[in-house]
């Protein structure tokens, strides 16, 4: 073959600086691109052989990555389809785009170069981000083909001549520049290959590694092992998501989870195998981890692949926000990517995939609930937060989740939203026909309020999760005008669910005013509004409550960072003195000093039951209690 020189067919001398500076967000991508190209070449020869267009031996397909630190080179070799000199001119020398002038004009005006470059196939040229000089040694699979050698120093000039390769395939040799010396490291290349190539469909070899293998038995009959050097194959060519669900066992799914997250301590609760080929192609496995009541959990656990090439773990455009709590893999060749294969581009398929995944997750949860409700309830503490998050953020998911979202009461009984409505609609109804759902956010601290509610035959829900402040509003909204949620400590129970029958005070109006004056002096706090009310004699003598609306607004301000007006307001409590309790009559008949002490003691007991008695006030209460015994 005669030596031939020429110029790469592009229309501006500035194309290489543009590629080097803007094509990829991270220089390490060069290795992914070149290894992926080598895999493509390997897959092509396999395809040609299956079609009868290649009669030779395909052999064991392998992509070999070699590092020579002394020579400062990285070589990516394959035994794939190879290229002729003419094919090098066609595929390498011509940078394909619709016009350099138009490209550069758009580039100048655009803030996001990735969007522009994303229209053009420039993967091979990522090599020049890290290399001063790039060589290609290649031999085509075609009968009678001659080996070819191509070299380029990063300018628009190239040289093509006779090559030295004796077997089918291609070597890409990168002469690494000074600025990219970090890549002349065995550990750095291993890290990049582990990240991007661990599930490619053709074996990727990167040197060798030391392992142990059986070597007979010792004198005591115990097995011996010896160290051996073996090929360091860095990838699993047939990951679980590429197989049909019928081919996999639970053990296979769990093993793949461990492969994805080797440092995870917990096994997933269950999983969904995605497999669709119309109107788009999508495969994958999504795992439900144990979430519990933790909003501050690590995200970016779902990995996006395209034909088994890792793209990114930033999948917020494909996966709804609430599903970001899941773990796993999504693989789709139909997700639109820019040329760097690092960013999504706007496309109708993205929305379709988003909707499909949401539907599949909802269907899976519904299926588990219907077929194994007991098992579903056992997992509720681990998945409840995830389901509530979905209901609050995605209307389509919420439509289905209404059928399997569980409400748990203080007796640890679980009900669907509809079941709970049926449970309380005839009992917990007030004089105006409102159906009142009572709930607690802290069963231990609010035990006295819960106990009082239960003496009335009422049920109390436990809503103690980080999203439950918002769930209360959701339940009211979905329950219609007549459903109201009230925290069990928001008022005395007879005020929370007011009936037609009205309690009468057993003390006179004058005595009521006197009792009010005594308690106001004993309490003497501007954040406490005192009132004397007619309650059952079995109720507590003093109750401390906070208004439901104000407390809920303040809780929402804490969880979502908004509603600062409410969040900045001070806490204001209501102190209800039970005018029918024997203690009040005793206070009224006592001396002024004794009455004040009894009032203060009753008030402090109410504070103590709410966890509001602390510091010096608690010390004083304990001392006073000892003196009164």
Automatic annotation (TrEMBL):
SMART domains: HATPase_c
Metal-binding found in the keyword field: no
Family annotation (InterPro entries): HATPase_C_sf, HATPase_dom, HSP90_C, Hsp90_fam, Hsp90_N, Ribosomal_Su5_D2-typ_SF
Source superkingdom: Bacteria
Record-annotated membrane-spanning stretches: none
Organism annotation: Sphingobacterium kitahiroshimense
Residue ranges of domain Histidine kinase/HSP90-like ATPase in the record: 26-180
This protein's name: Molecular chaperone HtpG
The gene coding this protein: htpG
Protein family: Belongs to the heat shock protein 90 family.
Keyword line: ATP-binding, Chaperone, Nucleotide-binding
Gene3D superfamilies the UniProt entry points to: 3.30.230.80, 3.40.50.11260, Heat shock protein 90, C-terminal domain, Histidine kinase-like ATPase, C-terminal domain
Alphabetical list of SUPFAM superfamilies matching this protein: ATPase domain of HSP90 chaperone/DNA topoisomerase II/histidine kinase (SSF55874), Ribosomal protein S5 domain 2-like (SSF54211)
Annotated Pfam families: HATPase_c_3, HSP90
């Amino acid at each position: 073959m005669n030596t031939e020189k020429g110029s790469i067919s592009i229309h501006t001398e500035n194309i290489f600086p543009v590629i080097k500076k803007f094509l990829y967000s991270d220089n390490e991508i060069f290795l992914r691109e070149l290894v992926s190209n080598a895999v493509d070449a390997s897959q092509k020869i396999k395809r040609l052989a299956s079609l009868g267009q290649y009669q030779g031996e395909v052999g064991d397909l392998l992509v070999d990555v070699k590092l020579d630190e002394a020579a400062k080179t990285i070589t990516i070799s394959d035994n794939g389809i190879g290229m002729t000199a003419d094919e090098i001119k066609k595929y390498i020398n011509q940078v394909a785009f619709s016009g350099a002038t138009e490209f550069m004009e758009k580039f100048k005006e655009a803030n996001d170069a990735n969007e522009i470059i994303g229209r053009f196939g420039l993967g091979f040229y990522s090599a020049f981000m890290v290399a001063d000089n790039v060589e290609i040694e290649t031999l085509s699979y075609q009968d009678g083909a001659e080996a070819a050698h191509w070299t380029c120093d990063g300018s628009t000039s190239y040289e093509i001549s006779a090559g030295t390769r004796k077997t089918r395939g291609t070597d890409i040799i990168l002469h690494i520049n000074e600025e990219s010396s970090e890549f002349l490291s065995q550990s750095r290349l291993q890290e990049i290959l582990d990240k991007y190539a661990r599930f490619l469909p053709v074996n990727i070899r990167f040197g060798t590694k030391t392992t142990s293998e059986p070597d007979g038995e010792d004198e005591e009959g115990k097995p011996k092992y010896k160290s051996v050097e073996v090929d360091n194959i860095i990838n699993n060519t047939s990951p679980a998501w590429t197989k049909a669900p019928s081919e996999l066992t639970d053990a296979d799914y769990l093993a793949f989870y461990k492969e994805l997250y080797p440092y995870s301590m917990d096994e997933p609760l269950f999983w969904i195998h995605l497999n669709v080929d119309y109107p788009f192609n999508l495969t994958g496995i999504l795992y439900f981890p144990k979430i519990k009541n933790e909003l501050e959990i690590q995200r970016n656990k779902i990995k996006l692949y395209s034909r088994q090439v890792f793209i990114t773990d930033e999948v917020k455009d494909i996966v709804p926000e609430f599903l970001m709590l899941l773990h796993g893999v999504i693989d789709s060749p139909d997700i639109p990517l820019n040329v760097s294969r690092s960013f999504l581009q706007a496309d109708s398929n993205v929305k379709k995939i988003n909707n499909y995944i949401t539907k599949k997750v909802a269907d899976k949860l519904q299926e588990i609930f219907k077929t194994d409700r007991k098992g579903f309830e056992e997992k509720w503490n681990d998945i409840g937060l995830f389901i509530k998050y979905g209901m609050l953020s995605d209307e389509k998911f919420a439509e289905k989740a209404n059928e399997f979202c569980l409400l748990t009461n203080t007796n640890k009984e679980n009900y669907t939203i509809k079941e709970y409505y049926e449970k309380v609609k005839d009992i917990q109804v007030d004089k105006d026909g409102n159906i009142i759902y009572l709930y607690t956010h802290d069963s231990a601290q609010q035990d006295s309020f819960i106990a009082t509610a239960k003496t009335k035959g009422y049920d109390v829900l436990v809503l103690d999760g980080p999203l439950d402040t918002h769930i209360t509003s959701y339940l009211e909204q979905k329950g219609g005008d007549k459903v109201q949620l009230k925290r069990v400590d928001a008022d005395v129970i007879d005020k929370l669910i007011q009936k037609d029958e009205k309690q009468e005070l057993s003390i006179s109006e004058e005595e009521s005013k006197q009792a009010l004056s005594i308690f106001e002096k004993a309490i003497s706090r501007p954040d406490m509004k005192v009132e004397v009310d007619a309650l059952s004699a079995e109720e507590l003598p003093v109750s401390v409550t906070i208004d439901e609306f104000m407390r809920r607004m303040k809780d929402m301000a804490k969880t979502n960072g908004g509603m600062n007006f409410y969040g900045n307001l001070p806490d204001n409590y209501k102190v209800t003195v039970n005018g029918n309790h024997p203690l009040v009559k005793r206070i009224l008949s006592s001396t002024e000093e004794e009455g004040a002490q009894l009032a203060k003691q009753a008030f402090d007991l109410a504070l103590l039951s709410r966890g509001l008695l602390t510091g010096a006030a608690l010390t004083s209460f304990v001392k006073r209690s000892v003196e009164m015994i």
